[in-house]
Specification:
Layout lengths: L7 E2 L27 H9 L17 H12 L8 H23 L7 E2 L5 H9 L2 H4 L3 H10 L1 H5 L21 H17 L15 H6 L2 H6 L13 H10 L8 H24 L1
Parallel strand pairs: 1-2
Helix pairs in contact: 1-2
Length: 276
Amino acid sequence: MAGQFDISINGSFGELARGYWWELLFPHTGECRPLPARKVAAGRYAVGSFDLGLFPQECRVDLVSHMTGVVERAVQGLADRPNTLQMDQIYLRMRMQRWQGRIASSTNRIWPCLSPFMFRSVLGVTLATQTRARRHSLLVRQMLTEFSPAWADFPREDGCPCLPLTWKNFYRFAPLLGHYGSKALTRAARLAGLRRAAAGSGNADSPRMRLWSQDDVRALLDPRSMCLSALMDPGALDNFLRRSQNPTFAFDAQWNRVLTVECALRALRGAARRAA
């Protein structure tokens, strides 16, 4: 798009006006109590299943415990403030700061990228707004309804408008029934000890299985010659890769990272040889 436009607008920081991640604070949203650091770590940072056994024993780190410590340090000194303020602090320091770094290191190198919600005047008003006005995205919905009714009335990608929900327009939010129904089933399955298969996994035609069918990928992921073997437990890596050739393998995302890192290490090794 660089040939068509001079600048792009990014919505980062806009989530703060919607009370992003506040659902983790229920039923104590807005109360002056310590942030549930472990719940935040497990629910937003150390998510997904992974095989910790890949790493040597002395290098293994429990991600939930590690991220719990990071969260606690990020809100140090704020335990007596509203937990919504602490969550905003986490979101700003641990997510949006990094997201802006990604924009600076990628998009901004092609053409300018502006985030209006990051402006001091906008961010200050957002953070000063009372908790009840920001719940359920009401602040954004009411703002659009008052200042841009046409935008508020236009359906989003999920089919629902940005209007506040009322008894007069509740029928327009029918698409949300399927969305929240799916989330409820997922939560019920998790509470029952069941785990839903990742999208595309569990069948012989998944992307992982198609990659395994390629000779160059099989050669690349040979534990005897992999660069990663020097960084991981060789026996565990060999076992992990053998299991990953089964359609019902449970660690698709981790397998993707193993493949990506190995490709990167090979590229770096090749560059070093050429430089020498």
